[in-house]
Write a structure and sequence with these properties.
Length: 158
């Protein structure tokens, strides 16, 4: 330690309050804020959506979420969408992660009693009777890909 960096005897021991403030300042400074969900006003829960039909891309999934939860675009953020590497069925399904600005009403009523929900989403905007069941959870049990691999459909799991 350089001589000029040596603290005075009265400065060597921080009070518990000073330590707490230093820890909070460190956490704030060291926490990456790369996600819109990290901004003020967003709910802190990230959800996983599973069993998404393979043909759904981000815009189509976004439209389905808007319709399902009666939300505007600014009220949710899809963070990832990738092929479910553990799903061996044909056609394959996808997995996504999502956060909401506020918890949708369809989730709020059961949020304290459940960590998984299922919903039917239309496979086509013109035929609301042809649906697929998706699952939304907060437990993240199992494998969750967070981004698609290059050449997503060209791998083998042994």
């Amino acid at each position: 330690m350089c001589e000029s960096d040596t603290p005075e005897p009265s400065q060597r021991h921080d009070t518990p309050g000073q330590l707490k403030r230093k820890r909070e300042d460190f956490l704030i400074a060291s926490t990456p804020h790369t996600s819109d969900a990290a901004k003020v006003g967003w709910d802190k829960v990230t959800y996983r959506i599973t069993r998404i039909p393979e043909e759904f891309d981000l815009p189509r999934l976004s439209q389905a979420i808007k319709s399902l939860f009666e939300l505007e675009d600014a009220m949710f953020k899809l963070h990832s969408l990738a092929i479910d590497a553990t799903d061996e069925t044909e056609p394959r399904t996808k997995v996504a992660t999502i956060s909401f600005r506020t918890i949708p009403a369809r989730l709020q009523s059961s949020l304290h009693h459940a960590d998984e929900w299922d919903f039917d989403i239309p496979l086509s905007p013109t035929d609301p009777t042809n649906c697929s069941r998706i699952y939304l959870d907060t437990h993240f049990k199992g494998f969750t890909p967070l981004s698609p691999a290059e050449r997503d459909g060209e791998y083998t799991i042994e």
